[in-house]
Amino acid sequence: MGRLFAPILKMAASHHGGEKAVLEKSRNEYARENLAKQPADRLLSVMARCVFNAGFNWKVIDAKWEGFEAAFEGFDPAKLAFFGEEMLDRLVSDQRIVRNGQKIKATLENARLVAEIEAREGGFARFLATWPAADQIGLLDILNKRGSRLGGATGQYFLRFAGWDAWIASSHVCAALVREGALDKPQATSKRDLVSLQAAINAYHDDSGLPRAQISRLLALSVG
Q1: Within 13 Å and on the Cβ side, how many CA atoms surround 98?
Q2: How far is CA 159 from the centre of its chain?
Q3: Which residues touch 125 (CB under 8 Å, ≥6 apart)?
Q4: Cα 206 to chain center, whole Å?
Q5: Other C-beta atoms within 10 Å of 165: how many?
Q6: How far apart are CA 220 and CA 59, in angstroms?
Q7: Which of 56, 129, 151, 213 fits as disulfide partner to 36, beta carbons 3.0 to 4.6 Å?
Q8: In contact, 110 and 54? CB cutoff 8 Å
Q9: 140-149 mean pLDDT
Q10: Which letter does DSSP use for residue 184 in this model?
Q11: How many angstroms separate the CA atoms of 166 and 214, rounded?
Q12: What is the pLDDT of residues 102-120, one digit of tens each?
């Protein structure tokens, strides 16, 4: 990786109306200063939405989300974890939601994960908020291994939409990092590639002082 972040910001600005405009466009609209105080049910709701969005039309999920909230009883993790199997039988026939059995089961399993961390760490939100942003890979690893259907981009989008300072290993981000010599190919799916991606974004953060989520967006915008 040969360059610091200023040339990348300049490239993104040239494609998107100047530096002021591109910095505004790349701002993480989901960022939360009070992430540690977010209710666990709202974080589980975001997690479930990301699981159901994966490989599906997001507009359909959005249109049905009020029904999802009602069917999953407000995404109370303790309640869903306790009544998991009973609720699974009911939810797979509930017409208010997308009746994908695997994703419904994954949401109930993720409720157990959230409930367990909530009890052990003094809050699931606190657990997320205190995890170092320089180690997104470690947090993704926990979500992937202990949760359900939270691997790859789904886990990354959950962190971003929950308000955590998360990068997304999109095709444009990876293409920019190939251009900058940080990746060998325009994708980051292996542990080795993700480590390289994290190292690059950490270096750009140290150089620019910008949030990592914003750096991720600016890398994508620098492609075109």
Answers
A1: 21
A2: 3
A3: 35, 36, 37, 38, 39, 40, 43
A4: 22
A5: 21
A6: 23
A7: 129
A8: no
A9: 97
A10: S
A11: 9
A12: 999 999 999 999 999 999 9
Taking the C-alpha atoms of residue 152 and residue 53, their distance in angstroms, rounded to an integer, is 13
Radius of gyration of the chain (CA): 19
Distances (CA, A) of 77 to 60, 83, 110: 24, 10, 8
Measuring CA to CA, how many Å separate 93 from each of 58, 59, 87, 100?
A: 21, 21, 10, 10
Give the C-alpha separation, 99 to 102, whole Å.
Answer: 9
Average model confidence (pLDDT) across the chain: 96
Quick: pLDDT tens for 31-44.
Answer: 998 999 999 999 99
Q: Are 72 and 92 in contact (CB under 8 A)?
A: no
pTM score: 0.95
- DSSP characters for 124-173? HHHHHHHS-GGGHHHHHHHHHHHSSS--HHHHHHHHHHHT-------HHH
Q: Say if residues 52 and 100 touch (Cβ distance below 8 Å).
A: yes
Q: Other CB atoms closer than 10 Å to residue 209's CB: what's the count?
A: 8
CB distance 219 to 8 below 8 Å = yes
pLDDT band at 86 (very low <50, low <70, confident <90, very high): confident
Q: What is the pLDDT of residue 84?
A: 74
